[in-house]
Amino acid sequence: MKILNNKLAFKVTWACVFFILIAAFPGSAAEIDDGLAKCAGIKDDNAARLKCFDDLAKQQTSAKHASPPSDVAATVPKELAKENKPPSLMSKQWDLDVAKENLKGTFFKLKPYRPIYFLPVAYNSSPNEDTALDFDKNAKAQYNEAKFQISFKVKPWGTDIEYIKGIKGIDVWFAYTQLAFWQLYNSAFSSPLRDINYEPELLINFRTDYSIPGFDDFKVRYFNLGFNHQSNGRSVPLSRSWNRIVANAGLEKNNFNLLLKTWYRIPEDEANDDNPDISRYMGYGELWGIYYWRGYRFAAMLRNNFRQENLGAIQLDWSIPLSMIHKELGNRFSFYVQYFNGYGEGLLDYNKSINRISVGFMLADWN
């Protein structure tokens, strides 16, 4: 009777283990059945039989928690990461990846264009002594002054229609930049604004996503064409102005941006041209490289007229989030250091070589 009860208990136990393993583990029923049958065949050694069942259970548990095949593990996370990847800074600046249904929501909203900053210390070791302040020959520019810039853009129209292969959409932008040089510490002459440059632009922006052959991670994200006017609003002989057709391109790789800016000056009547040689000093374009790292911004600008006299300019930028100095100050503003050497810093001094180091604050639109 005891032997019968042992056999019955064994069969019931075997059946329960079978159904539990079928329900709990991802192995096929045939594989599990073969394993159970093998264990059930051990009749004379209860310890060996129980060890066989234990080993089978451990084997199925390991299979359940095993990693997915390498092709699946490599593909799925990448697709999910691509879907959840936040837009890049360049994308946010120019609305490059806005969904079609959200495009109208981006119209008539002010966005930063060029850097917005205030530099209360802007020391120029070689000020332009050929221009007087307010026609007073004694009012020479001081070595130290303040320099500030405001710049914004707004989009009144855009479309996602692919008129040309590779062009994801077309937007129209109106931009405005104002750069000022302020003799803040020249109290003897009422601290005048020495020069103000007004620069409105109308740009047609083409949203793209081209890969550069051999550099698959480097993308051409946009290029734009437009009209640019720049003047300082002064009367002769201090009046400066010019009109340009501009063509720009924005390239991006991770946190690195490369901006290529080119222009063609629209010819003016010689009798009304206040600065006929401005292209000689300003050249026909400039190259910007900008790198963002942990809230910091590093930038360099190069410009050259590609002529024998080799006139041009270089500007170096370094921005540090104020939160790095004190957490309570936040990330919206940065401590900003700017170095400029060459021609064309401002319209009034376009034909004078400037060597200036400036320190102040910048609106950190990348944080």
Structure description:
There is one protein chain. This protein has 367 residues and is α+β, with helices and mostly antiparallel strands. The chain is built from seven helices and 13 strands. The protein has two domains: 2-64, no CATH class; 84-363, Outer membrane phospholipase (ompla), Chain C, CATH 2.40.230. Helix 1 (2-24) packs antiparallel against helix 2 (29-40) and helix 2 (29-40) runs antiparallel to helix 3. The termini are far apart. Residues 1-29 have low confidence and may be disordered.
Keywords:
12-stranded antiparallel beta barrel; 7 helices; 367 residues; single chain; Outer membrane phospholipase (ompla), Chain C; alpha+beta; disordered N terminus; 13 strands
SSE blueprint and pairings:
Elements: H1 2-24, H2 29-40, H3 46-64, H4 70-84, H5 89-94, E1 111-112, E2 117-124, E3 144-159, E4 167-182, E5 193-212, E6 215-231, E7 241-253, E8 256-265, H6 278-282, E9 285-293, E10 296-304, E11 312-321, H7 322-325, E12 333-342, E13 354-363
Antiparallel strand pairs: 1-3, 2-3, 2-13, 3-4, 4-5, 5-6, 6-7, 7-8, 8-9, 9-10, 10-11, 11-12, 12-13
Beta-strand percent range: 35-45%
Q: Overall mean pLDDT score?
A: 84
Instruction: Specify the structural class.
Output: alpha+beta
Largest sheet: 12 strands, antiparallel, barrel
Number of domains: 2
Oligomer: single chain
The rounded Rg comes to 35 Å
Number of helices in the DSSP assignment: 7
The H/E string reads: HHHHHEEEEEEEEHEEEHEE
Q: What is the terminal-to-terminal distance?
A: 81 Å
List the uncertain runs: 1-29
Task: Note the overall shape.
Answer: elongated
- The CATH architecture classification of the largest domain is Beta Barrel
CATH homology-level superfamily of the largest domain = Phospholipase A1
Major sheet: arrangement of strands: 2-3-4-5-6-7-8-9-10-11-12-13
